[in-house]
Description:
- The protein contains five helices and 24 strands.
- By secondary structure, it is an alpha+beta fold.
- Strands 3, 4, 22, 23 and 24 form a five-stranded antiparallel β-sheet that branches.
- Strand 23 and strand 24 form a beta hairpin.
- Helix 2 packs antiparallel against helix 3, helix 2 packs parallel to helix 4 and helix 3 runs antiparallel to helix 4.
Amino acid sequence: MITALLCFFFLRSTVALESVDLWTERNGTVDPEGQCSCEAFLPGTTFPMGELVQLEETAVRISQKLELEIIKVEMFESKLTVYIEKVANLTVVIQMMEDDPDSYSELQIQEVKIQIKQVEALILDLQASIQTSSSVLVKIRKEITSIVVVLTKMENKYDKNLVLVTRREYIKIQQKLDECERRHNEIFNPNIGSCNHGGISRLSKPIISQLNAHLVAGHIYGGWGKDSRPLPGSENTYWYSASTDAVVRYVSVYADYYRLIMRQAMKTYDLYASADWRGTGNNLIVRANTLYYQFANPFSMAKFNMTTQKAEYRVVPSASNRFSYHYSPYQNLDFAADESGLWITYATEASKGKLVLGKIDEAAFALKEVWQTSIFKPSVGNTFMVCGVLYATRSVDTNTEEIFYTYDTRSRKESYVSIPFEKFQENYMYLDYNPTDQKLYMYNNGYYVSYHVWFHQNNKTNKPQVLM
Length: 468
């Protein structure tokens, strides 16, 4: 593969730059059949081929390490199934003993106690193994993140076709790692779509996919992610929209993660094609193949159905266009989606800039209920919703963001918390939760960034049944 790339690069250099003396030495020969051949040395400063070779070798090493972790996860899942069966059966036996203690001898009780201690030891051993495996996956993720940044810089500086083969290898590794982490996290995480948990406990390290599809860091305004309620057959769809200013005009849709990374859009929609449906801010989401965003004129919430390519808007009563988030201008109306539906956050003159949360009736495209919070919106980095709970973030330092505030719409109670997480770069424009994969999607200074979300586990469980 490297040999082919070298030949390709030498050929391009000879044709395109023949007027420039790039060759430090020429050594031409003619064989008996009259075929001319030559050897040439191209200075390493022209293209870092040695670095690319190292990246490919690293890809092989990482892939092998990841395969071992995938095997471990399969073993964890198998062990966990067995342990759950043991715990369920022991629970039933203990319940029977408690209901009729006189029917069991001291020897039988002691035997059950020994079984309990054995299962506890097995579970502790499994937890230790899983934590060790988690550390390995974090290290792999960091290594891939660093390499993706290097590849992106090489694509910007040199012919991206020379980097394409290597990038494809890392895309495959990223996909494997994502699946491994998902299965790893599901061992202790609640099922996707479930709200049977006690709220967010922590976030993963930032997962850097790559620089945006424009390959320009100047496209700092925008967002990306997955459809929060995908139509049948579109469960793997991703979207991306960004620009050099705060105008929302284009949104691109990708069939899956691979095509997102390869910048192969399935369709790009122009909100200024047949009529002026442009928006402002970085507050957009896609839900049921419909783009929800802040309409520019008049100031209102809007939705663009990408299936019918029809748009409509609704003015939000009392919403002010003077209060945005700390990082981004014009983000006055911010959309969010979670397990319970579609939401919008904003501020009003009456609230003096304090954040207001509204639940949207999707069928009527209108607010059906609102909640007033006590946090000043311009001091907030961003907000998102999970299971009917609002989470707000703020900056701690150049490398750290913090979830510092929550508001539960069911109990109408607010609380101050501290859940720090790492930023890829200091400023980000977009942050939203997706209930289909329990991930946070961030648009950070032009880069696609995401986070796995972990939750506090509830102690309440269903009564186990006897396993036959």
